[in-house]
Amino acid sequence: MLPPSWVPGAAVGILSLHFVQKLLFPYFWADLGYLLKVLTYGLRMEMYRLQGRVVTVLDKFVTLAKKQPHKPFLIYEGTVHTYRDVDRRSNRIAQVFLQHEALKKGDTVALLMGNEPDFIHVWFGLAKLGCVVAFLNFNVRFRSLLHCVSSCEPKILVVGADLLGTLEEILPKLQKDVSVWIMAKDSRFPGVHTLLDKIGVASEDPVPVNRCSANNLKSAVLYIFTSGTTGLPKAAVISHLQILKGAAGLWAFGATSEDIIYITLPLYHSAASLLGIGGCIELGATCVLKKKFSASQFWSDCRRYNVTVIQYIGELCRYLCNQPVKEGEKNHKVRLAVGNGVRNDVWREFLDRFGAVKICEFYGATEGNICFMNHTGKIGSVGRTNFFYKLFFPFDLIKYDFQKDEPIRNKHGWCEKVKKGEAGLLISKVNAKNPFFGYAGSKRHTEKKLLYEVFKKGDLYFNTGDLMVQDHDNFLYFWDRIGDTFRWKGENVATTEVSDVIVMLDFIQEANVYGVSVPDHEGKAGMASLILKHNASLDLEQMYKQVVTYLPSYACPLFLRVQEKMEMTGTFKQQKFRLVDEGFNPSTITDPLYFLDNSKKAYVLLTKELHEKILSGKMKL
């Protein structure tokens, strides 16, 4: 029996529509799938709100500990910690602080610990008491660390056993009203409390539920430090809402409860804590936690623990690609790699060398209210936008004046949008659905991140400090950072912080710090242009001691340039643009140049031969 006469016509029509869609709207189905996921998650949260329920990531964890108590939650150095184990140990820590400290709901506790299970136990235990937990960057030292502690005004500081040397540095200058606890059974510091001995005898019973119950998703629950665009680190206020959004990232990229996620990034970073740990809880999955990233052990760990999802920053991927080629490098179960900052060439090399891993690049600032996700796998892009996405998450790219270091405004005082293909400053609208929670401490820092009356009277936008490009297919690409910050070794380096450390030396008059590009390296390496005091000479030994003592390793300037006179802009700011362009080439720069040679633990004269070694990759940076 022949089909009705309209069937062939309909088939041709459907086929034609398919080809038209492929030709004119090639990403339609991928966009629709991603948008539906975003809507699904948003509707789920809205349902909770309508039911009068405030469900946090911690609530979800406690539920999972009852639902799947024996499932591994954390695997650390071969030891398995089940959901029940982590729940019970965090209860013990909550009980210790309930008995020994007069902590009120909403009090802040600062956490200075490396990657280890007790970081999570302490974090969850304090969260169960309704405390705001401040994650301190363990690479930050002395003055900067004291600043971080004071800016979040903690009642308690909890320090890991492997960071007692750092504690010893700051203890004499730490505010006397901060109670200090260490993850040890005994203490050599007078007045410092020990935690491990008390955990062992504490009750595993949950603390009263009213201590941790949240009344509002917009209330603060964490402080995560960011260098921002200028100055010392700032404590970004992280709400329950932001944690929930961050925790949904792995799920949005297609991860499931069956996945095993490998976290090598530091837990004080939002990528590891919110996306990684939070993401594991959202999925009900298992996490393999590493004390510190190791390129040589990375793939053997992935095979050993049957890892299926990895987290990365751009540098991490490059380190893996720089490892000597071995047999069976594609012999692993990793299917997703989630992160940001990977360069196009490294992206391609990574896929060629390590197999069919889906690279899930995303963009999002710790304190920001905008996020992009590259759900199509387009190489080089941080994400994609469309009409519907902008309805839910309004943003724009605006023209920026690099000389004046501010957005360009037209004769009417309004900002102007860039055309597609042009670099512009990414700004995101602040509203009830996409709030900006700002920073702890000084309101001045929060105000500096906001732009008022951008396109019309009364509008308000968050200034990301990032320059982006949107192409004609609506893919977004990260272009650069504005202000006094550059990125190196996966960390933001605030130039003002580095300058402050250098000018403490009695032979330095002025220091102008900036980032310079180095071939085959992500980000920018630190360089300092120096003006010496009258009749003073450069003491390279003192310079080396100063930077390694007071700065994190990634913030130590790799290059020094000694100048006679500091160039200034018309608004009396240090001129960086020409210095950045000139880089560190001794063939074209007549000023004396020096290089931080880590193998010699000293600054050495930067010769043409040494310059060639750096460019060729023979000298490790």
Automatic annotation (TrEMBL):
Any one Gene Ontology molecular-function term assigned to this protein's record: nucleotide binding
Recorded GO CC terms: endoplasmic reticulum membrane; plasma membrane
GO BP term (any one): long-chain fatty acid import into cell
Predominant location: membrane
Top EC group: ligase
This protein's UniProt keywords: Cell membrane, Fatty acid metabolism, Ligase, Lipid metabolism, Lipid transport, Membrane, Nucleotide-binding, Transmembrane, Transmembrane helix, Transport
Membrane topology: Multi-pass membrane protein
Annotated ranges, domain AMP-dependent synthetase/ligase: 65-385
Boundaries of every AMP-binding enzyme C-terminal domain copy: 497-573
SUPFAM superfamilies attached to this UniProt entry: Acetyl-CoA synthetase-like (SSF56801)
Record's subcellular location: Cell membrane
Family to which the UniProt record says this protein belongs: Belongs to the ATP-dependent AMP-binding enzyme family.
NCBIfam families membership: PRK08279.1
Protein name (Swiss-Prot/TrEMBL): long-chain-fatty-acid--CoA ligase
